[in-house]
Structure formats: C-alpha cells, structure tokens
Amino acid sequence: MTDQIHNTLAAIVCVFGLTGCVQAVPPDLLVALEAIDHDLIALRAPEAAPEEYKQFVHQWISLKARVQLDDDLIRWPWESSDLENELRWLYSMGERTVSQLHERQASQHREAQAKVARLEEQLRAITTRVDSIHGRILLGEKVVQTDLLVKQARSFFEQKDFPRAMQAAEKADHALKAQASLLNQELGRYADESRIAYWRTLAKQTIDWSRIHQSTAIVVSKADRELTLYKNGRKMLSYPVRLGFNGVLEKQFQGDGATPEGRYRVTDKRGPGQTQFYRALALDYPNTDDRRRFYLAKRSGRISPAKSIGGQIEIHGADNELLAQTLGCVMLDNSNMAVLYEGVSVGTPVTIVGALTRENAVAMALSELVQRRDET
Predict the structure, then answer these.
(1) End position of a domain, from candidates 104, 127, 147
(2) pLDDT score of 259
(3) Which of 51, 278, 279, 316 has the smallest number of CB atoms closer than 10 Å to its CB?
(4) CA 191, 193, 198: angle at the middle one, nearest 5?
(5) How far from chain centre, in Å, is Cα 27?
(6) Which residue range is the domain that position 41 belongs to?
(7) d(CA 66, CA 81)
(8) CB contact set of 26 (below 8 Å; sequence gap of 6+)
(9) Using one digit for the tens of pLDDT, what is the confidence trace for 272-289?
C-alpha cells in the first residue's frame, strides 16, 4: 500500500509539473540492450562464446519481464532503481562480450585469410608441378577432392564463418601433403642416385654400341619426355615425346598406361596401311627381362593373377586427336616421326630409361612438392 501511495503521489507531481520525474527504466537503455543482443547473434556468440551468451540471454529475458511489469512505474530523479542498475550491468557485460568477440573475429579473419590464400597458392603451384610430370592420373580422385576442400575453405571464409574455413583449410592442407607423399613414394626412383646411375649405364652402352657398329640407336628419357637418335655414337637429333597416360610409372601389366623401361630393338617398321598411326616402329616388348620381372611380381602378389603382361609397344606418330593419348607407347608428332622412320632400320637398339641426370624434370618436381609439404 505504501508503494502504491508513493507512485500515485509521484504521478500527480509529474502531471502537474511540480518537479522533474523519470521513468523507472530509461527507454534508450532498452534499445541499447536490444542492439547488444543483435550484435551477439551476428557475431555467432551462441557458438563462439556459449557460456557468456547463455548468461546474457537468461538475464535479459528475466529483466525484460520485469520491465514489462513495471512499465508504468515512475520515480523521483534522486531515487535509485535496482532494475535500471541490473540492466546497466547487463549492458556492460554484453558490451564487453561483443568487444571480445569483435577482437576474436578480427584475429580469426586475419588467420583464415592468410591460411586460405596460402593454400590456394600452394594448390596452384602443386597442380602445375603435378601436371608437368603427368601425375594427375596417378593421384586419381585425390586431386578433385583437394580442390573441393580448398573451394569450401574459401566459401566459408567469405561467409565469415572463420572456424569452419580453418577446418576445411586444415583438411585440404593434409590432403596436399598426402598427395606429395604419394607422388614421392611412387616416383622417388627418379631421384635415386643408384637408379639414375643404372639408367645412365644402359644409355651409355647403347650409344657405345652405335659407335662400335657404326649404326643408329635410340635413347628415350621418360622424365624429360625426350627421344634422341644416335648415329655412329653421335647425337643426330632429339624430339619431344608423349608417353602412356601413366607413362612415368614403370610398366607392370597390360592396361596400366605405363611406358616400359629397358633395352629393346625395332622388330618392324609399319607404314601406311600397316598401323592405325601415321608411322610406327614396333618394339620387342615384352622381352626376357620384362617377363622375368612380371612373373616374379605375380608370385610375390604385387600383381593380380588375372593380369597379363601385354604387348604391342611402339614408337609411333598420331593421325588425329582421338589417338593423341597413347596407352603405354612413345608418341611423336607426325613430322618428327617421318624423319625418325626414315633414319632407322629393323634391329635398331632402343633404350628407354626413367632419367639420365639427377636434375631431371620429375626429380625437380618431387623436390619442390616435398619442400612445400614440409613448409606447412
């Protein structure tokens, strides 16, 4: 009853303007708290600061209910209001949380922006290197999956969802490292000194044979995609070549797309009407060494019992774009193939090696990929 009399007297005084009076809760304070609530939602406070947001919402709902009950309440200017004090405390707490979230978001923005940009640059560089050694087929779907993860990271970043952008970026980073490791595992022999020394020995023996027998010989470097014709031990010409779709791998069985390595001979020269290509030099693959390796791999379980060794490996040209990708042969442009075809005869030695120097294209690409992997 006393409070009712007090409020009635205060209202009469305010109506007649005898002295100043104020509402129990300033309207601008309520507007400010509504703005704080909206800011917290915009800053993803339920996810970024769940405890602080839960406390703010719980008290804000409770205080709003009290404000509605005391909507008509007025007070003397010199009187304090517990409700107003609680609302002001809540505003301070909410403002502090908003400030902290702004700082955290700014920090996450910088971190995510740097991470995503670095990742995109890495992907471009790695893709270029992988394409340069024709390793995309070897990686299969991993290339597409990694590309999608990088795009996903960029999308989350633009949506200002920085934590999810970082998560996607981390997954993409791991995927890129896995790709580099796989390529290094499958193609590491191109950087192996003992293997390169062996390949060089094969090439030297072939060149020496050409000199001793005053004849022609061919050496193909898979890493550098280059065919060189020797005559009497001297280099006569070099042409760029294309290999099988998995050409950089060592051939194991029919259909693997790999180009074989070893010492072969031209067994037949096939002109128009004798080959589906422009011109072709048939090789004696599989030879004794190829068959020995194949059957040993089968016995050890590295090759399925259902696989066959294959054959019909040639050095050939191409007639159209449909035949521009060989399945394991060595392919030249038709104009170069015409010159080579006329320059060799049946019985010409053909040595196909992985690489002839440590600074070959595959080894250099692998070195850069491993370096980028280890930097992040």
Answers:
(1) 104
(2) 93
(3) 51
(4) 110
(5) 55
(6) 2-104
(7) 12
(8) 84
(9) 888 888 999 999 999 999
